[in-house]
Design a protein that fits this description.
Residues 268-292 are annotated as: Disordered. It is a single chain. Among the domains are: 2-73, no CATH class; 76-171; 254-289. It contains 13 helices and no strands. The protein has helices at residues 2-13, 27-45, 49-55, 61-73, 76-91, 101-117, 124-133, 140-149, 157-191, 194-207, 210-240, 258-275, 280-289. α1 (2-13) packs across α4 (61-73), α5 runs antiparallel to α6 (101-117) and α12 runs antiparallel to α13.
Length: 292
């Protein structure tokens, strides 16, 4: 533990200074130089190849540390910008739809850990209240119960998350049981035959004699409605049939009207009598023989 603290002091504050020249080193001077080398080696072993290339030219452990701190955290302005972004996420933090308590706590921990790494910290009381405020409206009874049963100033965040997880499990169990009951009731309704419904009506009719009269009246009304609908359908069919504008009879159009055909034949007969020498009664005889 003592050597570890010495190495971290070298990384944060700088190498241990040896005043004597190399030819006049004593045992303590050799130990100091050894600690400086161990601190540099500790940093190099924790880096990837690309990160090592950034600090390979540094001569001390402190110089390596400062360069890594600048590349990872940035300048003070960059650090302040990151803090502002994380603080905004912290203030707007809410439980998402379909999210579990474990997933919500994981997102919250990522935000708080990022703020802690940048030097911004929230106390336990603020984090407990923030998690309670981030829950949706269906959690209101549980939030009220926790606030009344516990002192939020001394309650730990882990205890709060454990209580919320327990309530979440109970809510899932109750929802599953209620869904099973709804399914069984629906299955019973579907499985019951129609005869049971008719028998129940008969039993009700035996208790109350007026029910039979009501049913008979309803049946008569339904029959009248059916007959009326059939008559309306017949009328609609008749209305849909074509009507001749010449003879005003349904079933054909004016070009196919037999009355027009007879009139046309008579006109042809008159023309032919004018132009031919035959007598009109002879032409009428030929018309009667020819089919319409």
């Amino acid at each position: 533990m003592k050597n570890t603290f010495t190495l971290w002091t070298i990384i944060k504050e700088g190498d241990l200074i040896v005043l004597n020249p190399r030819e006049e080193w004593i045992d303590n001077d050799g130990k100091l130089v050894s600690h400086n080398s161990k601190a540099k080696n500790l940093i190099c072993c924790a880096l990837t190849r690309s990160e090592f290339n950034r600090i390979s030219a540094c001569k001390s452990a402190k110089e390596m540390w400062d360069k890594l701190k600048l590349t990872c955290e940035g300048t003070d302005k960059v650090k302040e910008t990151k803090i502002d972004i994380l603080v905004t996420q912290y203030e707007k933090f809410q439980m998402l739809i379909g999210e579990t308590i474990t997933q919500m706590y994981s997102r919250f921990t990522d935000i708080t850990n990022g703020l802690t790494g940048l030097g911004k910290m929230y106390n336990n009381r603020d984090m407990v209240r923030k998690n309670l405020r981030s829950l949706p409206s269906q959690w209101t009874p549980k939030v009220t119960a926790i606030e009344e049963a516990n002192d939020l100033t001394t309650m730990s965040l882990e205890k709060l998350i454990g209580s919320l997880m327990e309530h979440e499990i109970n809510m899932e169990r109750l929802s599953e049981s209620s869904s099973k009951k709804k399914f069984t009731n629906a299955f019973k309704v579907i499985a019951t035959p129609s005869t049971s419904f008719s028998s129940s009506l008969k039993n009700a009719g035996s208790k109350d004699s007026d029910v039979d009269d009501v049913l008979s009246k309803l049946q008569r009304i339904l029959k009248k409605k059916k007959n009326g609908s059939r008559r309306i359908q017949k009328k609609e069919k008749k209305e849909k049939e074509p009507v001749c504008y010449e003879c005003k009879k349904p079933g054909h159009l004016r070009p196919d009207c037999p009355r027009l055909k007879k009139i046309g034949q008579l006109e042809n007969l008159r023309r032919s009598t004018r132009n031919s020498k035959e007598k009109p009664w002879q032409l009428l005889g030929t018309m009667k023989k020819s089919p319409l």
